[in-house]
Design brief:
There is one protein chain. By secondary structure, the chain is α/β, with parallel strands linked by helices. It has a domain at about 20-110 and about 165-240: 3-Layer(aba) Sandwich (Rossmann fold), CATH 3.40.50. It has seven helices and ten strands. A hairpin with a 4-residue loop joins strand 1 and strand 2. Helix 4 crosses helix 5. The longest helix is centred in the last third of the chain and has 17 residues, at about 190-205. Bound molecules: adenosine-5'-triphosphate. Adenosine-5'-triphosphate binds near residues 33, 34 and 58. InterPro entries: AAA+_ATPase, ABC_transporter-like_ATP-bd, ABC_transporter-like_CS, ABC_transpr_LolD-like, MacB-like_ATP-bd, P-loop_NTPase. Keywords: ATP-binding, Hydrolase, Lipoprotein, Nucleotide-binding, Transport. GO terms for molecular function: ATP binding; ATP hydrolysis activity; transmembrane transporter activity.
């Protein structure tokens, strides 16, 4: 990965080639409002190409952890590094996120007045692509999630599972290295959830993407290679699934 991954101050020590994609080092997150310590001295690495599930009881800190991993939120203390470079005040977070990280949420946040194909193009604006390039890319993505025949549909004309597929295609618009998902199958019936899991497995295998998903579902977690269990803001266990 290039040195432009994170625009932090020049470092005299180049990152080793085997640097983890993400490093969380002694991270705490406090929410002073509720006097809550949501993350309590959390340390782990995630390497490129890993498929990780984050599990834990309600309120254990999973979403907070995912927000920090995705640079949507900053830790109160401790450090987060992306591709061997520390994220700090000088890091251009918008650039980092738009270039390298895709997000999939339980509520898909599709724009209601745009068609499926147009929704997929939204993250491509401001990236120096022509309209034709955007449409071309969006067509490839909609095909990759098996939704080509719904390109002109508005979100309200799609089923919940189909909307999630479009949201996943949109999250891939800028070819992110890392896909972060928060309860991606939470609103879906079992059959639709299974098809989204298959899609994730395909992205992991074919695109060699790094996937991190927060889930309450043992089935979703079993599809991953590694399960991090969080309890009271701490990592309770970190195990490989054998996949
Ligand atoms: N903005 C906030 N202000 C104050 N406290 C917060 C805030 N966001 C989260 N918390 C608290 O931090 C703790 C961790 O919350 P978090 O949402 O990360 O848990 P979670 O494991 O994702 O829960 P769930 O599975 O229910 O979504 C909880 O005690 C929660 O009440």
């Amino acid at each position: 990965m290039s040195d432009q991954a994170v625009s932090s101050p020049a470092s005299s020590t180049p990152a080793p080639l085997s640097a983890p994609l993400l490093s969380i080092d002694d991270v705490c997150k406090d929410y002073p409002d509720g006097n809550v310590r949501a993350l309590d001295h959390v340390t782990f690495d995630i390497h490129s190409g890993e498929y990780v599930a984050i599990m834990g009881p309600s309120g254990s800190g999973k979403s907070t952890l995912l927000s920090i991993l995705g640079t949507l939120d900053r830790p109160t203390s401790g450090t987060v590094s992306f591709d061997g470079k520390k994220i700090d005040a000088s890091t251009n977070l918008d650039e980092l996120r738009s270039q390298f990280i895709g997000f999939v949420f339980q509520s898909f946040y599709l724009l209601p007045t745009l068609t499926a194909l147009e929704n997929i193009q939204v993250p491509m604006f401001g990236r120096g692509m022509t309209g034709a390039q955007r449409v071309d890319k969006a067509r490839q993505l909609i095909e990759s999630v098996g939704m080509s025949d719904r390109a002109k549909h508005l979100p309200k004309q799609l089923s919940v599972g189909q909307r999630q597929r479009i949201a996943i295609a949109r999250s891939l618009a800028n070819d992110p290295r890392l896909l972060l998902a928060d309860e991606p199958t939470g609103n879906l019936d079992t059959v639709t959830a299974d098809s989204i899991l298959e899609l994730f497995a395909q992205l992991h295998e074919e695109r060699k993407m790094t996937l991190i998903t927060v889930t309450h579902s043992e089935e979703v977690a079993d599809a991953a290679q590694r399960i991090l269990r969080v309890r009271d803001g701490k990592i309770e266990s970190d195990k490989m699934t054998g996949r």
